[in-house]
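Notes taken during the Thursday session

The instructor put the following on the board and asked us to keep it in front of us for the whole hour. The protein is GAF domain-containing protein. We were told not to look anything up and to reason only from what is written here. First, the residues (160 in total):
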Amino acid sequence: MTTLDPIIIDQLDGLLTGETNPITALANASALLNDSMTDLNWAGFYLFNTKTGQLDLGPFQGKVACMHIQLGKGVVGTSYQQQSVIRVANVHEFAGHIACDSASNAEIVIPINVDGKTVAIMDIDSPKFDRFSEEDEKILTQFGQTLAAHLDTAALNTVY
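Then, after some discussion, the predicted structure tokens were revealed:
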């Protein structure tokens, strides 16, 4: 298992400094994740839609993906509902897993909170079982917090 280099936090901060468009920020964040981590087949975001109350596909890197996820469904929807990071060593053992890509075997999801509200879920999938370590979880949580510091809900709501 290859652990993510913590330098990714500084890279993200530098990349997003001065950026005001949240979609642009999320697109580059997903590209940075995809470029910086090994053994991935998907890295991106699901955005909370305040009109429908579901999570909609946002910027990502990888194969085509599920476009809408209900709260409480799958790893992504469960993370939103529980407001917690979820690291899954084997997605096939996760009750209610949504198989958007049958090649995915491990997954980690991190809520992105801005102004006390979860605006998105960062979702990263791997074809390798048990791909994500506890250290990866810590670094990715910091990555999410850094990303959140560059987003604001007003801008996100006007674009999305």
